[in-house]
User: What shape does this take?
Amino acid sequence: MYLRQLFVSVGGFRQIDLAAYIDLDDCKHALHEYSADGLRIREIDLPSEVVEPQHAVQLGRGYVVSHEGSLHRICILDEQGQLQKTSREMELHEPRDVVVDTHGRILVADKGHNRVVVLDRYLNDVRELILPAVDEGLKGPWSLCLDEERDRCYVGEWDGGRVLVFDHISNVALR
Assistant: This one.
């Protein structure tokens, strides 16, 4: 099991690998990167287009950041924090947690639309993780966790009180 994606986000704090953490600071409008022993490695100012950042995760040498405010978007930033791409055309509402798998697929917990969206590394190819028709659907997906050895994505709900398990490759709910 990959430890780097085993822990879920808490208050904008996310473990991204065994040696670094990312912390989104709303007050300073910055992204902080920390070592595993808690020492700040660097602070990256976020562009003004990133409003109310929720979570961040590394994508290659850059970052994927979910944010709310009036925009509700996913942004890709380079390693200096410069905006590279944004999900302008995609309709998101309260995007919360974000994870990236080893193939560069970006999974987004879209809380306000009760879904998990799967994108490619360029924010294209939108698809959703699917629940069986007998289920009542997702209720405020809040946190995501990948176990890539088993092709699993664990989805924690805010409103439903459940943790659902998906095969994130085939998009199908497993339980």
In short: The CA atoms of residues 49 and 62 lie 16 Å apart. The domain at 3-173 is CATH 2.120.10.30 (Neuraminidase).
